[in-house]
Specification:
The chain is an all-beta fold and about 750 residues long. The chain is about 0% helix and about 45% strand. Among the domains are: about 1-30 and about 590-749, no CATH class; about 550-580, no CATH class. It has a 6-stranded parallel beta barrel. A 5-stranded antiparallel β-sheet has the order 52-53-54-55-58, with no helix packed on it. It is elongated.
């Protein structure tokens, strides 16, 4: 949803009485009613509706001026189109378009002008379009190696309800060069490539859309060339649905990979049952750069992830932060690996922020420094469950390095591993939450420890229950606090129920999944009079939350455009766990300016009780609140007015609603329009067709209008643009970048 702000003249500037005295008559204005429609055929390009701003050479279409162009038809015999470098505010409507090229990319957005404007293009998708790259000869002059090429410094934005199929039989699907940006505000994308699916050296931004990517290399990739120090190397995902099958990495960024929401099914190489080939990378989410000065960061603030990888599922060469989201991981190697630091959850975070289930992994969570604040984390691994180390670091009596630290402040953690449960080459700090750890060996593997450290261990405020087939070496004699702890070497068989008694009352019990010969327990509730016993029947309400039965959750606080919501889960023991639910707009694709928690608000001075102009969306309904007596004009992608709501000059608090047709409308433009006629009434004529972008600060009513995109004015009788008070407002800039811009023919009065 692109919201374009209009300005209501005559009401905000002058009283109607003054206006009628200034203008003896209104100028009649005629508007061209159609945008160019260019149709590809096997023999060339037909101007179904002619216009200007473009050239046609054989089977090549060149867009050379700002404006809106509708592109349709089919050509599979080396046809292509491009946008001239430095051309801004180009809107291309792909309407059931099919293009295939062998000598260059089917579609190219050329680079920014040297020292000048950056090429800026929006593609709106209607119907089903297909672009196929068949460039087999890399020596060709115009070789681009992709179905869509976005050159240096250029920007390409996708929106619309349609589908775009992208096929690259020799290299990349979409490729952006240095400092380029590719933005997705909607649409369905099916990408099949020999190399990378969607790639850019600069920014890749996903706001909405559905993506199915089958890539011979990486699915989504933002990694600049080694000598390119100015490109962003960033992937930002705010929403969308992603199904990625990649021979190499699923999603990779050199500098930052940030995911705020979305649904992800990522499969790399042959999944977790097969190892990634030597000297290859088959990671799910990856932050890696060949440039030593980069500090790759992965940030996950939400989303639902199903990761099945032949390598690390999540891997950063520097840092990772996972605050929220639901992650289900099958990994052949580490489930989550971050070289320098890994943070899970937030201080005072909700019980299920995030939810991480590691179904299979060689190691579970590994980093130099690990901080866990909140979340529900279930880890099943062949090697260490939680490990503060670098891969291949030495173990044993001389392994201590103060760099390696584990801090657990909260969260509900369950570890079942064939190796060490919680392991640090430095120190372990268990300062809150619950840690249930099983580290029994299986299939003849050597015995390992539930709590393994090269330095000290501090337990202060946490509830810790561990069971394994080996004691903790060196034995725990001091946990750095007054909290009680105790151990037993009694042997218990698999599936036994072990209870902890304090002052002869059971305060905790748990079912152990495998045989144990060493059990450890510590809790703030534990007294100096305590014991372990075996019990026939488990009291699930005194067990860990993992033994309880939970419902599917109830929304206690709905998510809105202004605030996140809360889902509450209740167990059969009346325990409650909460999880953040994020606002997800439904219906048509949209993006907004002044985006605050997905609320589109364009403010024209004052506050909501005076003269604001607010636009919000909820599902398929657009709501416009105007405290100015202006006509509201709503237009669609094609520049056609779909709704005119007359102004009520006596009502200074007008609320209008419009139901969006998600099948035909992807972006809606909202204007406050006000031509003021000689008789003092408010009328629109068709002034929404004109974009007046300059509001002079000489006007005493001038207000700071951030993100102002459209300023509508009056056209008077003397064949030129007049502001009613030209000394106050300068309308000298008639901008053709408005999608509703049309040719104007002046007539004599």
């Amino acid at each position: 949803m692109v919201i374009k702000r209009g300005f209501c003249l005559g009401v905000a500037i002058l009283s109607l009485g003054v206006v009628s005295a200034l203008i003896p008559a209104i100028k009649e204005v005629a508007f061209a009613t159609a945008i160019p429609i260019l149709t590809f055929t096997e023999s060339g390009i037909t101007e179904t509706v002619s216009g200007d701003g473009y050239t046609i050479t054989d089977k090549t279409l060149a867009i050379k001026s700002s404006g809106t162009y509708r592109i349709t038809g089919s050509c599979t015999t080396d046809c292509n189109m491009y946008v001239k470098k430095g051309t801004v505010d180009v809107v291309l409507i792909f309407d059931n378009l099919t293009l295939s090229a062998t000598s260059t990319a089917p579609f190219t957005v050329n680079k920014a002008e040297d020292g000048g404007l950056a090429t800026d293009v929006t593609v709106k998708l209607y119907g089903t379009s297909t672009l196929t790259d068949n460039e087999s000869d890399t020596t060709l002059l115009d070789y681009e190696g992709s179905a869509i090429k976005v050159k240096s410094g250029a920007s390409l934005t996708f929106s619309g309800p349609g589908t775009l199929n992208i096929v690259s039989n020799y290299k990349n699907g979409i490729k952006g060069s240095s400092k380029s940006s590719v933005i997705f505000n909607g649409g369905t994308f099916n990408v099949t490539t020999v190399n990378n699916g969607i790639a850019a050296d600069g920014n890749l931004i996903f706001n909405r859309g559905t993506f199915t990517i089958n890539a011979g290399n990486d699915g989504i990739k933002a990694v600049p060339e080694l000598d390119d120090l100015s490109s962003a190397g960033a992937v930002l995902i705010n929403g969308g649905t992603f199904t990625i099958n990649a021979t190499s990495d699923g999603i990779q960024a050199a500098k930052i990979l940030q995911i705020n929401n979305g649904t992800f099914n990522i499969y790399t190489y042959q999944g977790y049952t097969k190892s990634c080939p030597q000297d290859s990378s088959c990671k799910g989410l990856k932050g890696t750069s060949d440039n030593a000065i980069d500090e790759p960061q992965i940030i996950i603030n939400g989303g639902t992830f199903t990761l099945d990888t032949s390598d690390d599922a999540i891997h950063s060469d520097a840092t990772s932060i996972i605050t929220r989201g639901t992650l289900t991981i099958h990994s052949k190697d580490d489930a989550i690996h971050s070289e320098k630091a890994l943070t899970v959850g937030t201080e005072n975070g909700l019980e299920r922020d995030p939810e991480i289930t590691i179904v299979h992994g060689f190691e579970g969570i590994e980093s130099e420094k690990i901080y866990i604040y909140s979340g529900k984390i279930n880890i099943t691994t062949q090697n260490d469950g939680i490990n503060a180390a670098h891969g291949g670091d030495p173990e044993g009596s001389n392994c201590y390095d103060p760099l390696f630290q584990i801090y657990i402040y909260g969260g509900d953690i369950y570890v079942n591993t064939n190796d060490d449960g919680i392991d640090s080459n430095g120190d372990i700090h268990l300062l809150g939450g619950t840690q249930i750890v099983f580290s029994q060996s299986m299939n003849g593997m050597s015995p390992n420890e539930a709590l393994d450290r090269c330095g000290s261990i501090v337990i202060d405020g946490a509830t810790v229950f561990t069971a394994g087939d080996r004691g903790i070496d060196p034995p725990i004699t001091n946990i750095g606090s007054s909290q009680q702890f105790f151990t037993t070497t009694t042997s218990y068989s698999a599936n036994s129920n072990i209870a902890v008694r304090s002052n002869n009352t059971i305060i905790f019990n748990e079912t152990i999944p495998k045989k144990t010969t060493y059990t450890f327990f510590s809790s703030p509730e534990l007294s100096s009079t305590r014991s372990f016993t075996s019990v026939q029947q488990l009291d699930v309400c005194k067990a860990s939350t993992w033994q309880q039965t939970w419902n599917n959750g109830t929304i206690t606080t709905p998510a809105t455009q202004l605030a996140d919501g809360i889902m509450a889960y209740t167990s059969n023991c009346a325990a409650i766990e909460r999880k953040t639910i994020l606002y997800e707009p439904t219906g048509t694709n949209f993006s907004v300016i002044n985006n605050t928690n997905n609320k589109a608000t364009v403010t024209f001075g004052g506050n909501t009780s005076t003269d604001d102009f607010n636009v919000t969306t909820d599902s398929n309904t657009l709501t416009v609140e105007s405290n100015e007596a202006c006509m509201v004009i709503i237009s669609n992608d094609f520049g056609a007015t779909v709704e005119r709501i007359p102004a009520n000059a006596t009502n200074n608090n007008n609320i209008y609603t419009y139901t969006i047709n998600a099948n035909t409308e992807s972006e809606i433009y909202v204007y406050l329009a006000g031509d003021v006629t000689m008789n003092g009434t408010v009328n629109s004529l068709d002034s929404a067709a004109i974009d007046y972008s300059l509001l002079s600060p000489n006007n005493p009513n001038y207000k700071s209008l951030t993100n102002l995109e459209a300023l509508l004015a009056d056209v008077n009788y003397n064949s030129h643009i007049n502001s009613l008070d030209s000394a106050a407002i300068d309308y000298s800039l008639l901008s053709p970048n408005n999608d509703n811009y049309k040719k104007i023919d002046w007539k004599n009065p």
